[in-house]
Specification:
The chain is an alpha+beta fold. The chain is 45% helix and 18% strand. Helix 1 packs antiparallel against helix 2.
C-alpha cells in the first residue's frame, strides 16, 4: 500500500453534551467531543521502524507529515504552531498493518494567526528546536532515528515550511483576511 495524505482535520463524528467516566472514577462533562480515527503516536512508529532498520520508511513518514501539514492545514489557512510533531501527530494504519496516513490528533496549538504561522515557518526556528537535533531529548529525531534522519528532515523543512511555499502563501493570505475581517468595526466594511 502507498502512503497518502489524508484529511487531518476531523471530526468524522461530533457529539454534544457528553459525560465521560474519568480515570479517577469521576464524571467529566464535555460540551463537544470530536471522535478521531485511531492512530499510533508518530514517535512510537519512528522508533519501531528504526529498530527494524527501516530508515527509508521513516523518511516516507516524515515526507508525509510535511506534505499533510502543507496541503491539509495550509490550504485551510491554519497551521500547527507546535513543533513537537512527533508527539502531536499519529500514523493511521490499513487493515494489513501498513502505514496509510499521518494525522494531527492534538489540536492544542492549531492557529490561524498569520503572525504565529509566519513565525512557525521561518526555517531557523526549527534548527535549534529540540524535536530535531537534541540527542539528550528522548523524542527528538536525532534520538529516535539518528543524525542522518534528523538532517534529512531539517533540509526538507527548510525547503517546504517557508512563506514562499505557494500553498502556505495562500494560508497566510486566508489567515490575514480572517484577521482583517474580524478587526473591522461593524457597518464599516470597505470604507476608506
Amino acid at each position: 500500500n502507498k502512503l497518502q495524505a489524508s484529511t487531518v482535520l476531523y471530526p468524522e463524528i461530533e457529539l454534544n453534551d457528553v459525560t465521560v467516566l474519568g480515570p479517577d472514577g469521576s464524571l467529566q462533562e464535555f460540551k463537544r467531543v470530536h471522535v478521531q480515527k485511531k492512530t499510533k503516536v508518530l514517535w512510537e512508529v519512528i522508533a519501531d521502524m528504526k529498530r527494524q532498520g527501516r530508515e527509508d520508511d521513516i523518511r516516507k513518514l516524515l515526507d508525509l507529515f510535511i506534505q499533510t501539514s502543507v496541503e491539509e492545514l495550509g490550504r485551510r489557512g491554519v497551521w500547527d504552531a507546535a513543533k513537537s510533531f512527533v508527539l502531536n501527530w499519529g500514523v493511521e494504519f490499513d487493515r494489513s498493518g501498513q502505514p496509510l496516513a499521518v494525522n494531527l490528533f492534538d489540536f492544542g496549538e492549531l492557529t490561524d494567526d498569520p503572525i504565529k504561522i509566519r513565525e512557525s515557518l521561518i526555517p531557523n526556528s526549527w534548527e535549534k528546536h529540540w524535536v530535531i537535533y537534541d540527542k539528550n531529548h528522548p523524542f527528538s529525531l536525532a534520538s529516535l532515528a539518528g543524525p542522518n534522519i534528523a538532517d534529512y528532515f531539517y533540509e526538507k523543512v527548510c525547503k517546504e515550511f517557508t512563506p514562499d511555499n505557494e500553498i502556505l502563501k495562500s494560508a497566510l493570505s486566508k489567515a490575514g483576511a480572517r484577521l482583517a475581517t474580524a478587526a473591522e468595526p461593524s457597518g464599516e466594511k470597505g470604507s476608506g
